Amino acid sequence: AQKVTQAQTEISVVEKEDVTLDCVYETRDTTYYLFWYKQPPSGELVFLIRRNSFDEQNEISGRYSWNFQKSTSSFNFTITASQVVDSAVYFCALSPGAAGNKLTFGGGTRVLVKP
Amino acid sequence: DVKVTQSSRYLVKRTGEKVFLECVQDMDHENMFWYRQDPGLGLRLIYFSYDVKMKEKGDIPEGYSVSREKKERFSLILESASTNQTSMYLCASSHPGGDDGYTFGSGTRLTVV
């Protein structure tokens, strides 16, 4: 069985602060995919990143960066210099075996960025 | 523009009613999924299907069933709606290899009174 844990339920920061969202996962599969999604107040799920289990390189996309560490089963997400538009719920998710298989989501972390 | 369409955005039903939530995708995806979203619990998988007429239970199938008679349509059925099934329901689809990721519908907010 798969499990994804996002221990932080809510984080509140002031604009321009950095914020790191933690994600810890459990799986017995050797091949798996990890995802981050953003859900703004409008409700739609916005894809942010996909990582497979064989690629531990960290990734940076603009103000977003991700740190994948298999040794600790973690896939953490950092927003640098946060903006009000970053206010949303962020979900970490895991897909066992193949990237299109069923996703197991964490409970989500609500990020509130205050001006 | 590819998409997953859920038939209703908001739905109010009475306890004991049989409820159908419809999901249609136009991407020729083999895989389809039904999730429910509740605050603090994230998205939890109810049922999924990797092929037409195929279905598998997810993590919380109790009180639900599904139907997939055609590749593009995946229906979620609440056999006898109860108040604890009040939730946001999200449908999604994907290719087996996941090359183009998952596409989610905009959700159906169901209230059972």
Question: How many β-strand runs of chain A?
Answer: 12
Oligomer: heterodimer
- List the chains of the largest interface with their residue counts: A-B, 23 and 27 residues
> Mean of the pLDDT scores of chain B?
93
Biggest pleated-sheet summary of chain B: 7 strands, mixed
The topology string of helices and strands of chain A comes to EEEEEEEEEEEE
- Helical residue percent band of chain B: under 10%
Structural class given helices, strands, pairing of chain B? mainly beta
Biggest pleated-sheet summary of chain A: 6 strands, mixed
Terminal-residue CA separation of chain B: 36 Å
Note the overall shape of chain A. globular
Number of helices of chain A: 0
How many β-strands of chain B, per DSSP? 12
CA radius of gyration of chain B: 13 Å
Sheet/helix structural class of chain A: mainly beta
The residue fraction in helices of chain A comes out at under 10%
Residue ranges of chain B: pLDDT <50 for 5 or more in a row? Answer: none
In summary, what is this structure?
The complex is a heterodimer of chains A (115) and B (113). Chain A is 0% helix and 53% strand.
Walk me through the structure:
The complex is a heterodimer of chains A (115) and B (113). Chain A has no helices and twelve strands. Chain A has 115 residues and is mainly beta. The radius of gyration of chain A is 14 Å and the shape is globular. The model of chain A has no long low-confidence stretch (mean pLDDT 93). Chain B is mainly beta and 113 residues long. Helices cover 0% and strands 53% of the residues of chain B. In chain B, strand 10 and strand 11 form a beta hairpin.
